[in-house]
């Protein structure tokens, strides 16, 4: 997708501070962090949101979630805990329409979210 911000990051047309990368998945630091650790994980494949995930994508999304947990262990935030967030659509708070999962950590997070 030519005009998709996260496709541009996946294709290295826009820089990001990368924390995890493999052939299919990218994890990078959010430009406007909401916690001491705030990473964004995306599949390199353009999928608009969880609402658009097909059964053939489930292996990819499962691997992405596993790599988020692996990264949390690598950064030594697993024991204290962290939060994974996926916003879907306008009411869900989604502003970038390429599926992504936030990893937030490093402070006590409030619940429920606003
Ligand atoms: P969402 O509101 O769930 O769609 O999340 C989009 C996230 O992308 C926000 O937390 C933004 O701060 C983040 N973001 C926007 N532009 C960039 C960028 N160029 N690099 C890294 N993160 C970004
Ligand atoms: Zn995209």
Question: Can you walk me through this structure?
Answer:
It is a single chain. With 114 residues, the protein is α+β, with helices and mostly antiparallel strands. It has a single domain, classed as HIT family, subunit A (2-Layer Sandwich). Helix content is 24%, strand content 22%. The protein is built from three helices and five strands. A five-stranded antiparallel sheet has the order 1-2-3-5-4, covered by helices on one side. A hairpin with a 7-residue loop joins strand 2 and strand 3. The model has no long low-confidence stretch (mean pLDDT 97). The site of zinc ion has 6 residues, from helix 1. The site of adenosine monophosphate (AMP) has 12 residues, from loops.
Task: Jot down its keywords.
binds zinc ion, 5-stranded antiparallel beta sheet, 22% strand, binds adenosine monophosphate, HIT family, subunit A, 114 residues, single chain
Topology, element by element:
Elements (H helix, E strand, L loop, with lengths): L4 H6 L7 E4 L3 E5 L7 E7 L14 H17 L7 E4 L3 H4 L8 E5 L9
The structure holds adenosine monophosphate and zinc ion.
The site of zinc ion has 6 residues, from helix 1.
Quick description:
With 114 residues, the protein is α+β, with helices and mostly antiparallel strands.
Q: Which overall shape is indicated by the principal axes computed on the Cα atoms?
A: globular
CATH overall fold name: HIT family, subunit A
Q: Kindly, what is the distance between the CA atoms of the first and last residues, rounded to a whole number of angstroms?
A: 31 Å
- Specify the structural class: alpha+beta
Beta-strand share of residues = 15-25%
Largest sheet: 5 strands, antiparallel
Low-pLDDT windows of residues: none
Whole-number radius of gyration? 14 Å
Pattern of helices and strands: HEEEHEHE
Strand order of the largest sheet: 1-2-3-5-4
Q: If classified by CATH, what would the architecture be?
A: 2-Layer Sandwich
How many independent structural domains?
A: 1
